[in-house]
Each structure stands twice: as structure tokens, then as C-alpha cells.
Amino acid sequence: MNPTAVHSFIDQPAQLAPFLDALDRVTEVAIDTEADNLFRYRTRICLLQLMADRAIFLVDLLAPLPLEAFWARLATKHLIMHGSDFDLRLLHEFCGFTARSVFDTMMAAQLLNRPRVGLAPLLEQHFGVVLAKEGQKANWSRRPLPPKLLDYAALDVFHLPALRDILRAELESHGRLAWQEQRCRWQIEIAQVGFPQNDEHAWRIGRSERLGPRAQCVLWAVWHWREEIARELDQPPFKITSNELLFEIAARADAELPEEAILAVNLGKRHDRLIHRLTEAVRAGLAKNPASLPRRRRGRDPNWMPLSAAELALQDRLKGDRDRLARQLNLDPTLIANRAQLAQIAREPRRLDDILMPWQADLLRNEPALKNGDPEPE
């Protein structure tokens, strides 16, 4: 079966009936989405790819389709996905969708310590399929979508059930299927939180803590300049200018350079018309009182307090245990516990089961740092 020849593109309400009938006949579907986050400030879902019993449907989510019945049906199905984090968060924000259950093939590949866990290398390894690279950076909001892109979208879901079967069997043989199930349930839960939103500290990019007060004021101002321009033009902030360039402008202010030297950076021809507003932003930053910058409330949140000597020592022992386990299990150490989680456990060992998933907690609790009954750090 060639998926590029049989997929159905849905952009009219009259096309929904056979699509919904196909959903009613299955208990699981393979799905993926395509968004325009590389081209817009406000991300939209543009296309949803779904395979039900080897029938592939490509649903135009920019078209005026009545999809309430579809979302209700989808919420009852088991989903096969690859790299579900972005898609599940996006679907939750788009229409409040919450998955019933998921098998994420990227998560499975991570637990098997595959050297490359992207969909493209996995499809090439197991099925000899080569995905066209242009599909990864395409503008999915353009209409009409060219046939080549629709073929690419269909391939994203066509092999997922077979890939799931291969990885599931391997996980089972390694005794890690329960780990996979816990990670997938956790992914569904955190997707309901949505995407992290910019807060009053979002301007603190890169090594901003190393900048002096004058430069931090300039960084605050030019970061907000970029956000304002990106919002007005409906483009991603990185397409206005990079974090590196914002940091370079701020660092020049740290060197006590005059205004013209601070602005002596190459914005490119497409930003010539923005230089006036950038100049205003730099001037505002230079005039800003550093005391007016938003401050982190370190004294109230224990997670902002530095670890004590005893806690740091426990963190080091925990890291040693984790790294040794990772070598024995042939796992990326951060899959057992990342740096932030190790710090949390070192601060409050009794909260181990709140901080980690059960399989992670069970691994660490039997290692020396915690098994030896280290007292709760003061």
C-alpha cells in the first residue's frame, strides 16, 4: 500500500461522514499534527493527519469544519503518536482535547537508548523510508497545500502502528513497558497545563545574570521591543532577531559604550525600518532605573534558595547513583532524573514519590544515597 496515493483530504463539511464512520470502526488511531509556529507569533494547528485501520485522512483545521463530533470520538481512542508533547499541548489549547491513552514512539525509542529518536531516522532504519526534509520546515498555513506536502503528511502516520509494534516488543523484552506507560500517562497530564507562558522574567535570556545593571536594563528593553514587533507582524520572535543579537546589544551597554556604538549591529536589510524603534528601546533601557527591574522572590520560594552544604552533598551522591544506574541500564541519565529533579530530591528526600514517576523513584530509592537512610537535610 502506498500512503501517498490513498489519503483523503478533508476541507468540506460534506466529507466528514465517511471520516467519522471510519473512526467508529476502530479503537486506536495514529495521529500527528502540523502547525505554523515557524511562521507566526500565534501558533495555529493547520493540519491533522489520522490513520484509522490503514485509511489515512488529512483534516484541514484552518477550514470551517464542524469538528465537535470528531473531537468527542477521538477522546475515546488510543492514540499512537511520535513526539506527542507539542501536539497534545497544542490540541488542548486549540479545543480542550485530552487524550484517553497514548503510545509515544519517540519516548519508546528513548527508553531503548536509540542513538537517533526522531521519526525520520526510525522510519529509515525499520522501513527504508526517507522523509522529504522540506516538509519539516514547510509553511503549513498556506493554501492550497501542494500534493508533495500532503504526501509527506500522510507518511508521518502511515508507519506508526508498525513502528509501535516493533518498539513495544523490544520494551517488553527489556522489562520497560511499564516505564513507557507511566511516561505516556505523565505526558497526557502535563499537556493539560498547556505551553509555558512568558512571565515577568522571560527577558532573562542566555547569560543575563552575568550582565551589569545597565546592560540588564537594556536587555529588558530590547527583549520587549522584539516581542512587540513580533506580535504586530505576527511572526515568531526569532525571525525578528536572535537572542544572541539582543545579548550583544546589552553587552555593549555593559561596556559603557555610547548609544551609536551600542546600536552598531547588523540587523539585516529586512529590519532597516525597525531601527528607529530599536533605538528608542535602547534609549529607554539606558534611562531605566535598575531597581525597577522585576526581582525574583528568592526568599519566599524554597526552590530559589541555594542548597545547603548537606543538600549539595546529597545531590552529588544522588547524581553518582543515577549515573551508575544509567550505565548499567544503558539509558540517558536524565531519563531517570534530571538536574532540577535531583536538586528537589536533595532538598526534600521524603518527596521522592511526588517528584519522580514510580519507575524512576523505585530505581533511586534502592541506591545508596537514599537506601542508607540519609537524614532529611536541614
What order do the helices and strands come in, and which of them pair?
Layout (H helix, E strand, L loop, with lengths): L2 H4 L1 E3 L5 H9 L3 E8 L9 E8 L2 E6 L7 H7 L3 E4 L2 H12 L5 E4 H7 L7 H9 L19 H12 L1 H14 L3 H15 L21 H21 L3 H4 L2 H12 L4 H4 L12 H13 L21 H21 L3 H4 L2 H9 L4 H4 L2 H8 L2 H4 L7
Parallel strand pairs: 1-4, 2-5, 5-6
Antiparallel strand pairs: 2-3, 3-4
**CATH C-level category of the largest domain:** Alpha Beta
Shape category: flat
CATH-derived architecture of the largest domain: 2-Layer Sandwich
C-alpha termini separation? 64 Å
**Quaternary state of the chains:** single chain
- The CATH superfamily of the largest domain turns out to be Ribonuclease H-like superfamily/Ribonuclease H
Number of helices: 20
Rg on CA atoms, Å: 25 Å
Task: Output the structural class.
Answer: alpha/beta
Strand order of the largest sheet: 1-4-3-2-5-6
Number of separate structural domains: 3
Q: Tell me the major beta sheet.
A: 6 strands, mixed
- The proportion of strand residues reads 5-15%
Helical proportion, percent range = 40-55%
